[in-house]
From TrEMBL, chain A:
It is an enzyme of class 2 (transferase). This is 2-methoxy-6-polyprenyl-1,4-benzoquinol methylase, mitochondrial. Residues 33-46 have a biased composition (Low complexity). Pfam families: Ubie_methyltran. It comes from the Eukaryota.
TrEMBL record, chain B:
Pathway: Cofactor biosynthesis; ubiquinone biosynthesis. This is Ubiquinone biosynthesis protein. The lineage of its organism: Eukaryota, Fungi, Dikarya, Ascomycota, Pezizomycotina. GO terms for molecular function: lipid binding. It is found in: Mitochondrion. Keywords: Lipid-binding, Mitochondrion, Transit peptide, Ubiquinone biosynthesis. Belongs to the COQ9 family. One of its GO terms (cellular component) is mitochondrial inner membrane. Coiled coil: none annotated. It holds the Pfam family COQ9. GO terms for biological process: ubiquinone biosynthetic process. The keyword Transit peptide applies. Residues 157-227 form the COQ9 C-terminal domain.
Length: 319, 256
């Protein structure tokens, strides 16, 4: 990026020294003009470099890293109340099937009643969608009433929504469910090697530094523990992809406008989906953080609109 | 006719076949699968070291717990991992079954070796290899019907059939068959059929040393041999009559 800019700046300089642009001001000799331009451009470059070194994506915009957290917070604060309605409308209710499939694939909970259950950390799980499903699975399928879930979210409004909803489930107010307001890139209140299963569903896309969050997941997981991620991904079929893109870019912001009275947040949503790495790229990021991935590293849902990624923390860190 | 192009075609065909190894079922496999048989360099295991550790210790629990998640979890625990670690196997118990199938198939070449001085025919070698492979199911035979039921689940059928075709291919290769004509296909198809029916028979065989399965296998192989002879005779008859028919037409002035 900076190299390209610099190259362009250099070519522009050469071009401009040969063409006296302002003939009305004869006192500006070409050499003086060159010096001035050089200084200006250096200043510009300096400015751009400052921004570039710590910049990140916010949808299609490029913003400073320090800004992203706040802006994502605003998006989710504004959508928290209408979160489910909008999800149902945007995905025709399929997001529920994805979440069910995600939990079924992970099979949370101990098989034997003598065991002490799993310690699950659900990151960016504010509204509790995944947490309640996992507790249901553990209780009803595995007959395990000891598995615990900690719902962590950076956004207090989403957590408040989750707290409210938990009162409608058998787990609200019990020790099996707890809430934590924390940044996934820095989970200092979670002890190292204390978690059996780390889940993040439709959340990691919004993180400022995804790799750092993956490394933090690696730290808090026990050896043998599982990192699992459900996230929008790349559609594999090009025809289906064209239809899907048309739907998401034209309809979703309009629906956001009509239902949630917030077009920008939903514009951000579709842009952030587009910006998220492909299945293979994300798999490489998981491996880079130190995890070993299954031989089938990811599982596509609905043709790749969403994908389930898994990583296992090895007993011994790879050499 | 020069056999080289034929061989090239067959190699390409077998390459296609081997492209359908378990490797393809698992798109993210980093270990490279060979697309041909090599007698000098062994096939790399289709399973990573951690997978091998967990699955091989899970297999020791199969005689007691069957092909179940309980065995898988017990295997993970034995290897020092957590219950949650079985997430390394997205297909769950089917991964345990395919580990059993793949390792038994790959160990055939080490366990059955024909000395050059024993002048066995290819048929006898195929019989010995198939029988050895069947006997390798012995320790888990009580749970084999359960395994077959899992393999027959619609989403696992393609992978199971692939594994069966790989086994048939392996047996013919180890028996020293070098045919590159269309019998390449018929040989593998019939052996796959014979082997799978014998496996099914063995699941309910309680005779000592699986003697009845051995007899069953011999009867099926004998049928194939006689059927193969009949088919060969029919083919020869068809070729001769076809030629005759063409000659009759030519004698009538048809420009063929």
């Amino acid at each position: 990026m900076t190299l390209a800019l610099r190259l362009r700046a250099v070519t522009r300089q050469k071009w401009q020294t040969h063409i006296p642009r302002r003939t009305t001001r004869p006192f500006h000799t070409p050499s003086r003009q060159f010096q001035q331009q050089q200084q200006q451009q250096q200043q510009q470059q300096q400015h751009q470099e400052d921004n570039n070194s710590r910049s990140t994506h916010f949808g299609y915009e490029t913003i400073a890293e320090s800004e992203k957290e706040g802006r994502v917070r605003n998006v989710f604060s504004s959508v928290a109340a209408s979160y489910d309605t909008m999800n149902d409308l945007m995905s025709f209710g399929i997001h529920r099937i994805w979440k069910d499939e995600f939990v079924r694939a992970l099979k949370p909970g101990s098989l034997h009643s003598v065991d002490k259950g799993w310690n699950i950390l659900d990151i960016a799980g504010g509204t509790g969608d995944i947490a309640f499903r996992m507790l249901d699975y553990a209780t009803n399928v595995k007959n395990d009433s000891k598995t615990r879930v900690t719902i962590s979210d950076i956004n207090p409004d989403m957590l408040a929504e989750g707290r409210k909803r938990s009162l409608w489930t058998p787990y609200g107010g019990t020790e099996r469910l707890s809430f934590l307001e924390a940044n996934a890139e820095n989970l200092e209140s979670v002890a190292s090697e204390s978690v059996d299963l780390y889940t993040v569903a439709f959340g990691i896309r919004n993180f400022t530094n995804k790799q750092k969050a993956l490394e933090e997941a690696f730290r808090v997981l026990k050896p043998g523990g599982v990192f699992a991620c459900l996230e929008f991904s790349k559609v594999q079929n090009s025809l289906f992809n064209a239809i899907y893109k048309r739907w998401s870019f034209s309809m979703i912001p309009i629906m956001g406008q009509l239902v949630a009275a917030d077009r920008d947040s939903y514009q951000y949503l579709v842009e952030s989906i587009e910006k998220f790495p492909s299945q293979e790229e994300f798999k490489n990021m998981i491996e880079l953080a130190g995890f070993i991935v299954p031989s089938q590293a990811y599982e596509n849902l609905t043709g790749g609109i969403a994908a389930i990624h898994r990583g296992i923390k090895p007993l011994h860190k790879a050499q | 006719m020069n056999p080289t192009p034929f061989r090239a075609i067959c190699r390409r065909v077998s390459r296609l076949q081997h492209g359908l190894r378990p490797g393809q079922m698992q798109p993210a496999k980093s270990t490279k699968q060979k697309h041909y048989h090599s007698s000098t360099s062994p096939d790399p295991s289709p399973f990573s070291p951690v997978e091998t550790t967990i699955l091989s210790s899970a297999l020791t629990h199969v005689p007691t717990h069957g092909f179940t998640e309980t065995s898988l979890i017990a295997g993970a625990r034995d290897a020092g991992y957590l219950d949650a670690t079985v997430n390394l196997f997205p297909h769950g118990v089917f991964d345990l079954i395919s580990y059993h199938l793949a390792t038994r198939r790959l160990s055939l070449k080490d366990e059955v070796q024909f000395l050059p001085e024993t002048h066995l025919g290819i048929g006898a070698k195929v019989r010995a290899l198939a029988l050895h492979r069947l006997r390798a199911n012995g320790p888990v035979i009580r749970h084999w019907q359960q395994a077959l039921a899992i393999m027959a689940q619609p989403s696992y059928v393609p992978a199971s059939l692939k594994e069966l075709s790989l086994l048939a291919d392996e047996i013919w290769f180890l028996a020293g068959d070098t045919a590159v004509d269309t019998s390449w296909y018929s040989k593998r198809a019939t052996l796959a059929l014979v082997y799978s029916s014998a496996e099914l028979f063995m699941a309910t065989d309680s005779s000592p040393g699986f003697r009845e399965t051995e007899q069953f296998l011999d009867r099926r192989l004998e049928e194939v041999r006689s059927l193969g002879g009949v088919l060969g005779a029919v083919g020869e008859w068809a070729a001769v009559s076809g030629k005759g028919f063409v000659n009759v037409l030519r004698s009538k002035g048809v420009g063929i």
